[in-house]
């Protein structure tokens, strides 16, 4: 069960101006980040943005070129020097799980507990196998387990030595899609029950949004935005974040007094987030998500919102249509599967959003 709000907890992990260079290349570029005690934070970003390098610097598998990493107030890396991984209170779950095939499940889980008293070790292993629901598999070889079970063994092994911070590197990448969704819930439950502070890495926005207390969106070695999943999804600070978190279309227009003229007609400025008068007259792009829009057969009497269907994707529960508005903007609309439009059909698009919209000054 989840108690308390991690947002109010003291910080457990802090990165201060952390930079990693490989020769001329900057993999991580001056990151500042605070993760609170008991919080699950996900680094989300495209391939090559520096997520794994950041995780490796927290683990001690890579040293920052400059900047500082602190765990529970103690500097574990500062300006090119640092404490080796085994002396940090940090556990890591690797993408490929890295279990020892010649040890049983219980021996794998107890692997990091060499210096524990035998009785305590046995009790700890039993508790963890119970936590991850694998008590009956204690004496098996991990080779005879399913992917999801192996992942739970890897998680139990990393949690066994009671690390302050748990790192997860693309933890679901080696699981098939259906298992992945089940394991997201399961992994979140286990992490929350142990109350460990966790940082995971993924390029899958749905995974990041569904498992995390907060998401840090990375681009090109930097963090573009950190926040709760709902907040980064609904209030993306940049076009990059908007695009990376899900299908994003942009309506172009010019702000005038209290309205903006777009391809969908005149929108009230009240609909736009955080508007101030300094933007009067500015060209802007308004973010619309597929579920903000609805397409209907073309209404010939309407002057705005008309366009041509240029894309049609069936996803099972819904259709996603791409419509090229007569103004030139291309927008995506998501409909439940009972409505059907054909490619090339003339349609009218309406804004049905019941929330304020994010927008950006035009590039
Ligand atoms: P992916 O999702 O593909 O794993 P990532 O976001 O985790 O990507 P990193 O693996 O952190 O990205 O890599 C960031 C950048 O640093 C990349 O351009 C990569 O080529 C470079 N890089 C990472 N490790 C090294 C290394 N050991 N030597 C040289 N360059 C490296």
UniProtKB/TrEMBL annotation:
* Alphabetic keyword roster: ATP-binding, Molybdenum, Nucleotide-binding, Transport
The compartments listed are: Cell membrane
EC number, UniProt record: 7.3.2.6
Q: Sorted alphabetically, which InterPro entries does this protein's record hold?
A: AAA+_ATPase, ABC_SmlMolc_Importer, ABC_transporter-like_ATP-bd, ABC_transporter-like_CS, Mo/tungstate-bd_C_term_dom, P-loop_NTPase, Transp-assoc_OB_typ2
| One protein family per Pfam | ABC_tran
| Signal peptide, first to last residue | none
Give the chief site where it resides: membrane
Keyword S-adenosyl-L-methionine recorded: no
Task: Give the first-level EC class, as a single word.
Answer: translocase
GO molecular function terms noted in the UniProt entry = ABC-type tungstate transporter activity; ATP binding; ATP hydrolysis activity
Instruction: State the source organism's domain of life.
Output: Archaea
Q: Does the keyword Repeat apply?
A: no
Residue ranges of domain ABC transporter in the record: 13-245
- Catalysis performed (reactions): tungstate(in) + ATP + H2O = tungstate(out) + ADP + phosphate + H(+)
Q: Topology versus the membrane, per the UniProt entry? A: Peripheral membrane protein
Q: Name one GO cellular component term.
A: ATP-binding cassette (ABC) transporter complex
Q: Give a short account of what the protein does.
A: Part of the ABC transporter complex WtpABC involved in molybdate/tungstate import. Responsible for energy coupling to the transport system.
UniProt record similarity statement: Belongs to the ABC transporter superfamily. Sulfate/tungstate importer (TC 3.A.1.6) family.
Q: Which PANTHER family match?
A: SPERMIDINE/PUTRESCINE IMPORT ATP-BINDING PROTEIN POTA, SPERMIDINE_PUTRESCINE IMPORT ATP-BINDING PROTEIN POTA
Q: How does it assemble?
A: The complex is composed of two ATP-binding proteins (WtpC), two transmembrane proteins (WtpB) and a solute-binding protein (WtpA).
Which protein are we looking at?
Molybdate/tungstate import ATP-binding protein WtpC
Source organism (scientific name): Haloplanus rallus
